[in-house]
């Protein structure tokens, strides 16, 4: 598959709905599950699916993402026949710079894709939590003689108006596409996962941008144009766990689901491992009077308080008298003494002073990256 299909991960999203958590980093770089970042799931899916060449398209605040991915060695993508390439926006001869949509991002990187010369291009989002075998999807794409295959998942009909909805015939050939329809005709929602025959997509994009520059987005523009042209466009049904963590509520919900030992993602499955770049930290330490219940505690943590149904990420410090429930504490956050945190997400490098209360019974509370809340820090005392 290393020469048959190239993966292009779109990882430039700003993630404005995550508020303070994405003030300094792109959404795919947001920490998840204690020792991962969101993009790790898509990258690991590529490796587990046998895909050896990956392009990562960045745009908004890319530094943390670039540092995290590096040369791809954490995913085994640093070999002679494998590799990961970070692709930034750049000024071209016609003045174009920023990516204006998903399809435009691929168009801007045609020269890179041509160097790889794949038969198929797999377009992915870098901000979803799921496990998926893309090789199985490719097999179905080939069997259907498709020009385009779209990954879809069934959602509750009441939520279907939030998604791009595919209407199919009895063979799962897509006959109609509705972008966030007010009255959806089906509950097959697009996952933002596409397999294209590269030759066909390449000519489609080049023709469009030489004429009217209208094919900016895959969902809004490219899929409808393929259907109008009578192309073979098929749906690939996915029935596993998939979560778009684009909001505070969905990120918190996915984190709580992640905690359980035999959870929906089956993280202890050695046949489909999730890889990440991890810092080297000492083993976590749980103090004598501390208590931990149904929680994930990662390397480098010091726990001096009571932790219940929560995630403490790498190098988190929790001092005595503090209680944390149903919460996510991101890397290197420091929680002072006698603090109460419930139903919250605390961002990287945040500092919570002694005696602070982080809890709102009506919504998930968020402390931003490096934000300082309440009390005095030890060095100030």
TrEMBL record:
<comment type="similarity">
    <text>Belongs to the bacterial/plant glucose-1-phosphate adenylyltransferase family.</text>
</comment>
<keyword id="KW-0321">Glycogen metabolism</keyword>
<dbReference type="GO" id="GO:0005978">
    <property type="term" value="P:glycogen biosynthetic process"/>
</dbReference>
<keyword id="KW-0320">Glycogen biosynthesis</keyword>
<feature type="binding site">
    <location>
        <begin position="179"/>
        <end position="180"/>
    </location>
    <ligand>
        <name>alpha-D-glucose 1-phosphate</name>
    </ligand>
</feature>
<keyword id="KW-0547">Nucleotide-binding</keyword>
<dbReference type="InterPro" id="IPR029044">
    <property type="entry name" value="Nucleotide-diphossugar_trans"/>
</dbReference>
<dbReference type="Pfam" id="PF24894">
    <property type="entry name" value="Hexapep_GlmU"/>
</dbReference>
<dbReference type="InterPro" id="IPR056818">
    <property type="entry name" value="GlmU/GlgC-like_hexapep"/>
</dbReference>
<dbReference type="InterPro" id="IPR005835">
    <property type="entry name" value="NTP_transferase_dom"/>
</dbReference>
<dbReference type="GO" id="GO:0008878">
    <property type="term" value="F:glucose-1-phosphate adenylyltransferase activity"/>
</dbReference>
<feature type="binding site">
    <location>
        <position position="190"/>
    </location>
    <ligand>
        <name>alpha-D-glucose 1-phosphate</name>
    </ligand>
</feature>
<feature type="domain" description="Glucose-1-phosphate adenylyltransferase/Bifunctional protein GlmU-like C-terminal hexapeptide">
    <location>
        <begin position="289"/>
        <end position="362"/>
    </location>
</feature>
<keyword id="KW-0067">ATP-binding</keyword>
<comment type="subunit">
    <text>Homotetramer.</text>
</comment>
<dbReference type="Pfam" id="PF00483">
    <property type="entry name" value="NTP_transferase"/>
</dbReference>
<dbReference type="InterPro" id="IPR023049">
    <property type="entry name" value="GlgC_bac"/>
</dbReference>
<protein>
    <recommendedName>
        <fullName>Glucose-1-phosphate adenylyltransferase</fullName>
        <ecNumber>2.7.7.27</ecNumber>
    </recommendedName>
</protein>
<keyword id="KW-0548">Nucleotidyltransferase</keyword>
<comment type="pathway">
    <text>Glycan biosynthesis; glycogen biosynthesis.</text>
</comment>
<dbReference type="InterPro" id="IPR011831">
    <property type="entry name" value="ADP-Glc_PPase"/>
</dbReference>
<feature type="domain" description="Nucleotidyl transferase">
    <location>
        <begin position="7"/>
        <end position="257"/>
    </location>
</feature>
<feature type="binding site">
    <location>
        <position position="164"/>
    </location>
    <ligand>
        <name>alpha-D-glucose 1-phosphate</name>
    </ligand>
</feature>
<keyword id="KW-0119">Carbohydrate metabolism</keyword>
<comment type="function">
    <text>Involved in the biosynthesis of ADP-glucose, a building block required for the elongation reactions to produce glycogen. Catalyzes the reaction between ATP and alpha-D-glucose 1-phosphate (G1P) to produce pyrophosphate and ADP-Glc.</text>
</comment>
<dbReference type="InterPro" id="IPR005836">
    <property type="entry name" value="ADP_Glu_pyroP_CS"/>
</dbReference>
<feature type="site" description="Could play a key role in the communication between the regulatory and the substrate sites">
    <location>
        <position position="59"/>
    </location>
</feature>
<keyword id="KW-0808">Transferase</keyword>
<dbReference type="GO" id="GO:0005524">
    <property type="term" value="F:ATP binding"/>
</dbReference>
<dbReference type="InterPro" id="IPR011004">
    <property type="entry name" value="Trimer_LpxA-like_sf"/>
</dbReference>
<feature type="site" description="Could play a key role in the communication between the regulatory and the substrate sites">
    <location>
        <position position="98"/>
    </location>
</feature>
